[in-house]
Design goal:
Radius of gyration: 20 Å
Helix content: 40-55%
Largest sheet: 5 strands, antiparallel
CATH superfamily of the largest domain: Aminoglycoside phosphotransferase (APH), C-terminal lobe
CATH architecture of the largest domain: Alpha-Beta Complex
CATH class of the largest domain: Alpha Beta
Number of strands: 10
Number of domains: 2
Distance between the termini: 52 Å
Structural class: alpha+beta
Number of helices: 11
Shape: globular
Strand content: 15-25%
Order of helices and strands: HEEEHEEEHHHHHEEEEHHHH
């Protein structure tokens, strides 16, 4: 990768699960590089949702490298997820036609509740399914499958944890790490955000800032998708040996189910 920038640049891994991200430094300049990013990144940059894309270059081996401005800043603290600007940026993302059009051009299909329960069936192993709260959650998903249907499909981030929200030193807010982007019910993102970070008494107010009324149908869809995401996370954590996180997920199931 050095020949793209010159030998004077120091390139080091930026961490992350994929191992495709790097930091390049030279003479006071700093870039965030990523290998084989989706073309979706260009639209995210144009919409002001991620830090500005500077260039895209193809290497001799076919890899595509993208470079973005390196922004000094920090991730949001969990308590900051209650802020109105989080709701506004989430609303901007969910209502963006350019984002939706690009994902459709890339061949992304709509992810509906039927597809989700089929995926859960494939992923959960016998030991996980033996847990009583897992059984109760799966039973709930099937019993409310038709009720969880929704006609509006938009671009969802899919992992709206606070550590994916970047606040720059210039007070600009971004949502990064779009590898899990999907076309789905907005309740996929809204449910995980509200259940994880917002007091139930504040849901109606937060959703008003987002631009949506808090209805019984939305509440059901959010609960449905949070249970589905939690089941998949439990299995993933189990396979990775992350037992503390797996047990936290099981506790979340028992909290959400009533």
């Amino acid at each position: 990768m050095e020949h793209l920038l010159g030998q004077d640049w120091e390139i080091t891994p930026a961490g992350g699960a994929t191992g495709k991200a790097y930091v390049a430094k030279h003479d006071g300049q700093q870039l965030f590089l990523k290998r084989n990013s989706s073309p979706f990144l260009a639209v995210l940059s144009a919409e002001g949702i991620v830090p500005k894309l500077i260039w895209t270059k193809r290497m001799e081996n076919g890899d595509v490298i993208t470079a973005q401005h390196w922004l000094e800043g920090r991730e949001l603290a969990p308590v900051e997820m209650t802020q109105s600007r989080v709701a506004r940026l989430m609303s901007k993302i969910h209502s963006s036609q350019p984002l939706l059009s690009m994902l459709e051009k890339l061949g992304k299909k709509r992810v509906d509740p039927g597809m989700i329960v089929a995926h859960i069936e494939q992923q959960l192993d016998a030991e996980t399914i033996a847990h009583k709260d897992v059984q109760s959650a799966v039973a709930f998903l099937y019993s409310r499958l038709q009720d969880a249907e929704h006609g509006e499909y938009i671009v969802c981030h899919g992992d709206i944890n606070h550590n994916n929200w970047l606040l720059s030193d210039e007070d600009e807010l971004y949502l990064i790490d779009w590898d899990g982007a999907m076309i789905a019910d907005p309740a996929v993102d809204l449910g995980m955000l509200l259940y994880k970070y917002i007091e139930v008494s504040q849901w109606e107010n937060w959703l008003a800032q987002y631009g949506l009324a808090f209805t019984p149908h939305l509440e059901l869809r959010m609960k449905w998708h949070v249970l589905a995401q939690t089941l998949l996370s439990i299995q993933w954590d189990k396979e990775k040996g992350r037992l503390r996180e797996m047990n936290e997920g099981l506790r979340d199931l028992s909290r959400i189910l009533p």
